[in-house]
Design brief:
- The chain is of the alpha/beta class.
- It contains 32 helices and 34 strands.
- The protein has 3 domains: 210 residues, Aconitase, domain 3 (2-Layer Sandwich), CATH 3.30.499; 230 residues, Aconitase, domain 3, CATH 3.30.499; 196 residues, Aconitase, domain 4.
- Helix content is 33%, strand content 18%.
- It is globular and about 85 Å long.
- Pfam families: Aconitase, Aconitase_C.
């Protein structure tokens, strides 16, 4: 095996470490950086069974022009989780321990096999804002709401090996990852006493794990289901991807930010079509791209649609490692390792070989212009100069006959009296891992605030302003530069350290504003420095959401409306009555760079991360249960023992065909995991709200869906419950298409909620199908989009095309993903969801064969039939194993029991 022949010794200063040498493997020179990382991963983890020389050879013989066909097994070095998606992972692991015991095994076989870190960053909500004590008040409320969850995580930290928790109030998962957790090159002690150096790689239960790609660390977001398997030592099955080479050249012009660059790249790559592909940035120009900008670009990979958006290791990488407090020994190791294994990027090196790519793109950074994106997708880029015009063209689609067209008077105690108009900015939030990890855009926001205050400008009173940085370092350098005072003066006091607005934790609007919006069916907007702006995500009160750089967020707060032209309209007047335009307060690139250089330093990172796992008195004072098995509380509305393993047998039950299934939901194009997976706030009238009320929870204590992901009873009731979801099935039976989680129950012959209909179908043993269009499942890597689908009784999802992560997650939950024949759709085949469906040929999987297609027979109400062969999207043998076992966790559990 290559694993035996490639083990070598690497000198690092006065010490030496072992490493697996790939530099001399034939074919390595022309491979993209990202594929070299995979080569090292395969060689190091080769076992002669799951990973063989043939897998390595397939990668070394990679044909850039070929479509993906070779399966390999990727074994990430570590797993990172945020708490929304991470809590159910630990719930599942704890439940698996119970299941192992019930099957007569040792519960402690269920233990993370690689380092697993959870950063609690998704639970803080912006209940309080615009006051000096907002951050402490919001953290107090956070602990009050989430104490059950936090106690459970504290238990997990003690019960499981290789599991660490970064407590609340520290920062956002991806920023903590690049600033502290990521090593770029890792080491571990071998049983023979030697030290092995190997490449850092990770998967994360958040799609924006790709932020770490900016450091040269290969990693991407996976569903919680895949992450659990990775924690338990299972490699991730994948096809060798096509790799898109993206050359950057030139420099960012005056007035343009890293956010503008990333929105431009997102626009370009979405048009190129990079779903399921690797994107790799290369060429001489990337040496001029700061690490923070690289991280910002990598962060947006899910918005491109790509698996990753990676930069190679170079001197810029080393500079960032030093800045963020990594030791000189670690920096030396990274450089020595990268150079020895042909992973070092330096186009001036006479031995440099330019990689070959499947596709090529190029961007001259000097051509980038200030941009925003919206009103509902991150790839819908708009030039700022055209923003007002585009908004006014789009607004009519969001108003109805009930919408009041004239200004509505609003009177508040907190912000005084004003008039609210359609298009007004109700939320302007500096938030999210995309931008708060980037000092240049955060300093730009602070400088713009300073200039605005000097000119006497203030945000409009109806704007909810908030600042939620991704790490405490941001607060440090804003404070040291004296910019936090200026941000405070504009209402941008700190509200917390966490994901906040971008995940939907924007908190309530002033009740008077919310009432005006709903009474008059108004269309107000949100502007945030985030990466996600899907419908219904930011706030249930807000229909249109726009992404923008942090300084532009403040600019829109000052303008107060999206119907604003920054070129021709003044933001206000100064003390002398002179008009003040955005250009008058926008800082220069040189000013921004000077403040960054003078105020962002290594000591800040060392100090803030010195006790990163300890937490404050609130964290340390939690009452923590003990023991290898968790003592479940049946009355808990936050953490419940899962039901996935109930009745599980030691051997899998044969896969069966589907007969006489009914359609639960008939959906259109671009249905995202935000439409499917429960997220954000929910109403008392919803099935989840009704459940909590029956369990004695007051509406004010509902918290968010994300905080209750550890309770499957809440989550299954919210699946497909997004307020913007349109189930076309209602229209097919002549009912009004009511947005939200509604469907038609063909057994009861009446419209009802998706949850209630599913219970009726399950009770009568009727399997369910979901029909959809193109790009089904785009969005965050949400395990509950798949878990909830399975728990509703859905056996098959048939769509025109899938997003990578959600397709994989469906298989991980035992749901079969099928695609309509090429060029066909539900509509072109004459389907409307009223049919009954029988799907045959699935049972071939019992013979160890994954069929290319299965036969679908849809019987219409008049007895006629529509028949077609649907493409089976079980793409790898590993996925077939998972499906045969009823899901990935069942597969892992059975295998661990056999060891």
């Amino acid at each position: 095996m290559l694993r035996n022949t490639q083990l070598d010794t690497l000198a690092v200063g006065s010490t030496s470490v072992g490493y697996y040498r790939i530099a001399d493997l034939p074919g390595i020179d022309h491979l993209p950086y990202s594929l070299k990382v995979l080569v090292e991963n395969l060689v190091r983890n080769e076992d002669g069974a799951n990973i063989t020389d043939e897998h390595v050879q397939a990668l070394l013989n990679w044909d850039p022009a070929a479509e993906p066909s070779h399966e390999i097994q990727f074994t990430p070095s570590r797993v990172v989780m945020q708490d929304f998606t991470g809590v159910p992972c630990i719930v599942d692991l704890a439940t698996m321990r119970d299941a192992v015991q019930q099957l007569g095994g040792n519960p402690e076989v269920i233990n993370p096999q690689v380092q697993a870190d959870m950063i609690i960053d998704h639970s803080v909500q912006i209940d309080k804002y615009g006051t000096a004590d907002a951050v402490q008040a919001n953290m107090d409320i956070e602990y009050e709401r989430n104490s059950e969850r936090y106690q459970f995580l504290r238990w997990g930290q003690g019960a499981f090996k290789n599991f660490r928790v970064v407590p609340p109030g520290t920062g956002i998962i991806h920023q903590v990852n690049i600033e502290y957790l990521a090593r770029v090159v890792m080491t571990k002690q071998q049983s023979n006493g030697t030290t092995l150096a190997y490449l850092d790689s990770c998967v994360g239960t958040d799609s924006h794990t790709t932020t770490v790609n900016g450091l040269g660390v290969l990693g991407w977001g996976v569903g919680g289901i895949e992450a659990e398997a990775a924690m338990l030592g299972q490699p991730i099955s994948m096809l060798v991807p096509r790799v898109v080479g993206f050359k950057l050249k030139g420099s960012i012009p005056e007035g343009v930010t890293a956010t503008d660059v990333v929105l431009t790249i997102t626009d370009m790559l979405r048009k190129q079509g990079v779903v399921g592909k690797f994107v790799e940035f290369y060429g001489e120009g990337i040496a001029q791209v700061p690490l923070a900008n690289r991280a910002t670009i990598g962060n947006m990979s899910p918005e491109f649609g790509s698996t990753c958006g990676i930069f190679p290791i170079d001197e810029v990488t080393l500079e960032y490692l030093r800045l963020t407090g990594r030791s000189e020994e670690q920096v030396a190791l990274v450089k020595a390792y990268a150079q020895a294994n042909k992973l070092w990027h330096d186009v001036q090196d006479p031995d440099y070989v330019e990689p070959q790519y499947s596709e090529y793109l190029e961007l001259d950074l000097s051509t980038v212009v200030p941009s925003i994106a919206g009103p509902k997708r991150p790839q819908d880029r708009i030039r700022v100069t055209e923003a007002k015009q585009k908004f006014e063209q789009t607004l009519p689609a969001y108003v109805t006959e009930q919408t009041t067209r004239t200004p509505v008077p609003v009177s508040t105690a907190f912000r005084g009296d004003f008039e609210l108009t359609n298009g007004d900015v109700a939320i302007a939030s500096i938030t999210s891992c995309t931008n708060t990890s980037n000092p240049s855009v955060m300093i730009a926001a602070g400088l713009l605030a300073r200039n605005a205050v000097a000119k006497g400008l203030q945000p409009k009173p109806w704007v909810k302003t908030s600042l939620a940085p991704g790490s405490q370092v941001v607060a440090d350098y804003l404070q040291q530069a004296g910019l936090q005072d200026d941000l405070d003066a504009l209402g941008y006091q700190l509200v917390g350290f966490g994901c906040a607005t971008c995940i939907g934790n924007s908190g309530p609007l002033l009740p008077e504003i919310s009432e005006a919006i709903h009474t008059h069916d108004m269309t107000v907007t949100a502007v945030l420095s985030g990466n996600r702006n899907f419908e219904g995500r930011i706030s249930p009160d807000i229909k249109m959401n726009y992404l923008a750089s942090p300084p532009l967020v403040i600019a829109y707060a000052l303008a107060g409306t999206m119907a604003f032209d920054f070129e021709t309209e003044p933001l206000g007047q100064d003390a002398e009555g002179n008009d003040v335009f955005l250009r008058d307060i926008w800082p220069t690139n040189a000013e921004i760079e000077q403040v960054v250089t003078q105020n962002v330093n290594r000591d800040m990172f060392l100090n803030d991360y010195e006790s990163v796992f300890e937490g404050d008195k609130r964290w340390q004072g939690l009452d923590v249960p003990e023991g290898e098995l968790f003592d479940w509380n049946d009355d808990s509305t936050y953490v419940r023992r899962q039901t996935f393993f109930d009745g599980m047998t030691a051997e899998p039950v044969p896969v069966q065909d589907v007969h006489d299934a009914r359609v639960l939901a008939f959906l259109g194009d671009s249905v995202t995991t935000d439409h499917i997976s429960p997220a954000g706030a929910f109403m008392a009238s919803s099935p989840a709200g009704q459940y909590l009320i029956k369990h004695g929870v007051a509406q004010k204590d509902f918290n968010s869906y994300g905080s209750r992901r550890g309770n499957h009873e809440v989550m299954v009731r919210g699946t497909f419950g997004n307020i913007r979801l349109r189930n076309l099935l209602l229209g097919s039976v002549g009912e009004e298409i009511t947005p939200g989680g509604f469907t038609y129950d063909f057994l009861a012959m009446k419209p009802t909620t998706i949850y209630e209909a599913s219970r009726n179908y399950l009770a009568n043993k009727v399997p369910l199908v979901v029909l959809g269009g193109k790009e089904y499942g785009t969005g965050s890597s949400r395990d509950w989009a798949a878990k909830g689908t399975a728990m509703l009784g859905v056996k098959v999802v048939i769509v025109e095309s899938f997003e990578r992560i959600h397709r994989s997650n469906l298989i991980g939950m035992g749901v079969l993903p099928l695609q309509f024949p090429e060029g066909e759709s539900a509509t072109s085949l004459g389907l409307d969801g009223t049919e009954t469906y029988s799907i045959t040929g699935i049972d071939k999987l019992n013979e160890g064969v994954t069929p290319d297609t299965v036969h679908v027979d849809a019987t219409h109400s008049d007895g006629s039939h529509t028949e077609f062969d649907a493409v089976v999207r079980i793409d790898t043998p590993g996925e077939a194993d998972y499906f045969r076992n009823g899901g990935i966790l069942q597969y892992v559990l059975r295998n661990l029991m056999k060891q």
